[in-house]
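Researcher: We plan to redesign the surface later, but first we want a full-length starting point. Tokens attached.
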């Protein structure tokens, strides 16, 4: 996190790179792209941790990235999100509890256990 944004390193298919910033609010798909990153809606980005440079790709689906997050009570959960520019899909998993967010999440919901809540 930097200020009130999540910062992730991104690489486009043409090799251009840059740091993108995202809202930490699940279901808020506001993203700031730097001018150095040449991408358009529908492009698959490769996302990395900006500190350790670990690839954030998920084993659930080639289009999904994954990060761990902790809530205010210290409970750890997994956040899966689309790496496709303009696609609105986020999944929050805490143990067996699955929460789905975004208009495009239906594309990936079969890759998760039966969802209990949809937002």
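Model: Full-length starting sequence:
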């Amino acid at each position: 996190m930097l200020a009130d944004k999540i910062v992730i390193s991104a690489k486009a298919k043409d090799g251009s790179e840059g740091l993108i910033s995202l809202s930490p609010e699940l279901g808020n798909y506001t993203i700031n792209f730097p001018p150095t990153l040449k991408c358009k809606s529908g492009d698959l980005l490769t996302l990395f941790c900006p500190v350790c440079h670990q690839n954030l790709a998920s084993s659930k689906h080639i289009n999904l990235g994954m990060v761990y997050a902790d809530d205010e009570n210290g409970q750890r959960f997994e956040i899966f999100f689309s790496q496709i520019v303009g696609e609105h899909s986020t999944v929050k998993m805490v143990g067996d509890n699955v929460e789905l967010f975004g208009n495009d999440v239906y594309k990936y919901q079969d890759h998760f256990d039966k969802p209990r809540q949809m937002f």
